[in-house]
């Protein structure tokens, strides 16, 4: 040990052997105390490590089980080749919670999960190891997965966990999990949508460019008529196992329920308690509650939806037909395009691209086309503050045309309302009213942009600018490399869900909610 591990004298060797035997006995004791076989560990103690072998064939590698064996925590393969940590509902293989580090791991590389007062996920990235994720500010002695699917880090003497996965939801809430002002938003697994809590309401938002641009709301549910007075408690929500989502206020007399979103099965008392429930922000932008029937018999088990926030059909969803799509409601909702270049989605590639800037104001010289349509409206009009009332279609359009933060304008016809869309244009809805008109800016797709001839003088100036830019780019690149190198050395690449901007839009886009799919 002391001489760089060159060989021990017999006394040291004996000591090491004795120590190993003692710690093995201790481990057995801890396991024995929980009354579980070695294959289904229900408690991790300090010093625990588990490794994920590079390119392992199993899409989920559990390291910890809930006593009820319905849930397990372990390494999860996401999309074609990313690695994450997750709590999985074993009967359905559905991840209920994911660590979602700012940088996902690579399934084809070895990774290590260790517990030494904090849980840490590291990956071997070339010559160094990189910390991908860590439970911050939460020292503990044990890690357990509860029957509720809550992953908890605990101090021996303390009743409350020092860290719990319930405080960091991914796209799903389960019964007993508080969704509070301190919780990060629920983010759909494709990262396009978010559920946020306001002082007196919950709201669904579209996310653009990984949350870096404005996130417009498209659905809102108020729990109180009036928001609480400043300084007062704010509402929080909790899925109740009996079949509803309750909204609560903490007051002097303890918790007070102020509102209920009840599910279809709420009244069916015979089902209560026997069901496992979840509420998930799905990839289509709808918030749904599901139950998993655990009743016996040979019936095929599946998730059954028992609540959806947007129940007006497909055209009620904000991106039903994609960017610049037009959703035509009916028994079979149909997708068309606002733009003329294609008749069915995907309608226009330029508007939704992460590479292009979040804001037209960053690219005031970008070439824009304009599309005007009659008989268009938007499903979430109530969530758009009207820019003007009692105005004309021409004035409505002009307000948008001269404003680079505006992507489109909708004129409400007889009502005289004018709505400006200050975020990239998504799906509009067909509305059989000729007075309802829309005006939309369309960024020209790069490859179609025709280049006009330039005067030689302009070319020379451009060349000088370009050389300068290349030089600056090389310098910036060097600085970034240098900073990254230093940071890696300090092992500082640590991010927990919700503390940073959501990255990895591309890799996430291909991820699946259920790894079985
Ligand atoms: C968890 O579930 C198991 C098996 O269903 C049960 O024996 C145990 O008592 C439960 N634990 C708690 C804390 O409810
Ligand atoms: C949820 O909030 C209630 C009321 O504040 C509290 O009693 C309960 O322990 C919380 N549950 C969890 C899992 O934190
Ligand atoms: C909010 O504050 C007011 C006065 O500050 C108080 O009277 C009221 O009870 C508070 N409401 C809640 C729900 O705490
Ligand atoms: C709407 O505008 C017209 C003409 O500008 C005006 O005569 C009318 O009073 C306005 N109506 C309201 C409700 O403001
Ligand atoms: C430009 O549009 C944004 C929203 O689309 C609006 O908030 C802002 O007031 C507008 N600016 C002007 C000068 O009209």
From TrEMBL:
The protein's location, in the record's own words, is: Membrane
- Which GO cellular component does the record give, naming just one? membrane
Query: What molecular function does GO assign, one term?
Result: protein serine/threonine kinase activity
Write the record's keywords in alphabetical order, separated by commas: Disulfide bond, Membrane, Receptor, Signal, Transmembrane, Transmembrane helix
Bilayer topology reads:
Single-pass type I membrane protein
Task: Give the transmembrane region(s).
Answer: 460-478
Q: Which GO terms describe its biological process?
A: recognition of pollen; response to other organism
Q: S-locus glycoprotein domain spans which residues? A: 275-339
Q: What is its main location?
A: membrane
Catalyses which reaction(s): L-threonyl-[protein] + ATP = O-phospho-L-threonyl-[protein] + ADP + H(+); L-seryl-[protein] + ATP = O-phospho-L-seryl-[protein] + ADP + H(+)
Any signal peptide, and if so, which residues?
A: 1-35
**Mind telling me what this protein is named?**
non-specific serine/threonine protein kinase
């Amino acid at each position: 040990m002391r001489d760089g591990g060159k060989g021990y004298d017999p006394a040291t060797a004996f000591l090491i052997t004795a120590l190993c035997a003692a710690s093995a006995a201790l481990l057995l004791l801890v396991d024995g105390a929980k009354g579980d076989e070695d294959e289904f560990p229900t408690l991790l103690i300090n010093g625990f490590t588990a490794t994920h072998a590079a390119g392992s064939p199993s899409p989920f590698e559990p390291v910890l089980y809930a006593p009820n064996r319905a849930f397990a925590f372990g390494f999860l393969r996401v999309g074609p080749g990313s690695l994450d940590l997750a709590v999985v509902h074993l009967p359905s293989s559905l991840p209920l919670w994911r660590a979602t580090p700012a940088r996902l791991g690579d399934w084809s590389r070895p990774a290590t999960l260790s517990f030494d007062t904090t849980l840490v996920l590291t990956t071997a990235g070339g010559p160094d190891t990189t910390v991908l994720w860590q439970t911050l500010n939460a020292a503990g002695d044990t890690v357990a997965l509860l029957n509720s699917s809550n992953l908890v880090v605990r101090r021996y003497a303390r009743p409350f966990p020092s860290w719990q996965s319930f405080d960091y939801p991914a796209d799903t809430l389960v019964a007993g999990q508080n969704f509070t002002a301190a919780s990060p938003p629920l983010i759909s697994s494709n990262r396009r949508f978010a559920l946020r809590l306001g002082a007196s309401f919950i709201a669904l938002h579209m996310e653009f460019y990984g949350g870096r641009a404005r996130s417009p709301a498209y659905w809102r549910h108020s729990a109180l008529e009036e928001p609480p007075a400043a300084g007062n408690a704010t509402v929080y929500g909790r899925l109740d196992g009996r079949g509803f989502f309750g909204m609560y206020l903490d007051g002097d007399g303890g918790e007070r329920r102020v509102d209920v979103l009840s599910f279809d099965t709420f009244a069916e008392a015979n089902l209560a308690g026997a069901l496992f429930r979840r509420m998930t922000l799905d990839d289509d932008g709808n918030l749904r509650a599901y139950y998993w029937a655990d009743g016996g018999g040979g019936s095929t088990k599946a998730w059954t939806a028992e609540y959806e926030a947007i129940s007006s059909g497909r055209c009620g969803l904000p991106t039903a037909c994609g960017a610049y799509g037009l959703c035509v409601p009916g028994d079979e909702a149909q997708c068309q395009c606002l733009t003329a270049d294609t008749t069915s989605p995907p309608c226009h590639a330029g508007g939704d691209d992460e590479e292009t800037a979040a804001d037209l104001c960053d690219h005031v010289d970008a070439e824009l086309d304009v599309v005007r349509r009659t008989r268009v409206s938007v499903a979430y009009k109530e969530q758009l503050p009207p820019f003007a009332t009692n105005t004309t279609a021409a004035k409505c359009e002009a307000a948008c045309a001269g404003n680079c933060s505006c992507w489109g304008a909708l004129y409400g016809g007889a009502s005289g309302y004018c709505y400006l869309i200050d975020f990239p244009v998504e799906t509009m809805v067909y509305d059989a009213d000729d007075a309802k008109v829309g005006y939309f800016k369309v960024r020209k797709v790069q490859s179609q942009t025709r280049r006009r001839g330039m005067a030689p003088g302009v070319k020379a100036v451009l060349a000088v600018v370009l050389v300068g830019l290349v030089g600056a780019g090389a310098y910036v690149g060097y600085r970034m490399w240098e900073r990254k190198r230093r940071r890696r050395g300090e092992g500082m690449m640590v991010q927990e869900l919700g503390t940073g901007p959501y990255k990895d839009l591309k890799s996430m886009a291909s991820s699946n909610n259920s790894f079985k799919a």
